[in-house]
Automatic annotation (TrEMBL):
<protein>
    <submittedName>
        <fullName>DsbA family protein</fullName>
    </submittedName>
</protein>
<dbReference type="InterPro" id="IPR036249">
    <property type="entry name" value="Thioredoxin-like_sf"/>
</dbReference>
<dbReference type="Pfam" id="PF22234">
    <property type="entry name" value="Rv2466c-like"/>
</dbReference>
<dbReference type="InterPro" id="IPR053977">
    <property type="entry name" value="Rv2466c-like"/>
</dbReference>
Length: 213
């Protein structure tokens, strides 16, 4: 594979365990391939706000009561402290939400901010719409590359002509490590190089496995 450095853009919602799996794979890819990841927020709440009547009641409750807070906090951190804090804050949030099983509680958000070396006062933005315009802009930047029929994560990688090719996924568990992570990355670039390629899919037979994280 070429040793020239590649940039991958990654859109996530901290609530999604599948995006969390994929993001940990991307961190592994940075170790085994010349890749730099740029982290961006997308929002399951925004994605589903026009179809709340179509989703199961328990998922609707999650969207209405839990989904806004974490993404608002990440966007506030980005706006007030720069793009460079997004990846570290996502790691801190995801570790508490998923690996430690704390869920998206206000306590978990405050402690994640502390873990990331950011002001705990940023947690106050979970209940504020101060940066909702910026949140929606970040979300729409990612989702516009793949369409409304997908979720999180979205990744954008270089295509054969140098332009971006974006996909939903890959959806994988547990997060691949070492050479397995490298092979999956190489395969992602390979399918991105095929004009007109859209989808490979099979039914999921297991849930997110955090045992190696």
């Amino acid at each position: 594979m070429s040793e020239s450095r590649t940039t991958a853009d990654f859109w996530f919602d901290p609530l999604c365990p599948w995006a969390w799996m994929t993001s940990r794979w991307m961190l592994e890819v940075e170790k085994v391939r010349p890749v730099d990841v740029r982290w961006h927020v997308m929002s399951l709440a925004v994605l589903n706000e026009d179809k709340l009547d179509e989703v199961p009641p328990e998922y609707r409750e999650m969207l209405e009561t839990q989904a806004w807070g974490p993404v608002r906090v990440v966007i506030a951190a980005r706006e007030l402290h720069g793009d460079e804090v997004v990846g570290g804050l996502y790691t801190a949030l995801g570790t508490r939400f998923h690996n430690k099983g704390e869920g998206p509680t206000r306590t978990a958000i405050r402690e994640a901010l502390e873990d990331a070396g950011l002001p705990v006062s940023l947690a106050e933005y979970a209940d504020k719409d101060t940066y909702d315009a910026e949140l929606r802009a970040s979300h729409h930047e990612g989702i516009s590359k793949v369409g409304q029929e997908v979720g999180t994560p979205v990744i954008a990688v270089p295509g054969p002509d140098g332009g971006e090719i974006a996909f939903f996924g890959p959806v994988v568990t547990p997060a691949p490590e070492g050479e397995e992570a490298a092979r999956l990355w190489d395969g992602t670039l390979m399918v991105a190089s095929v004009p007109g390629f859209y989808e490979i899919k099979r039914s999921r037979t297991q849930g997110p496995d955090f045992s190696n994280l």
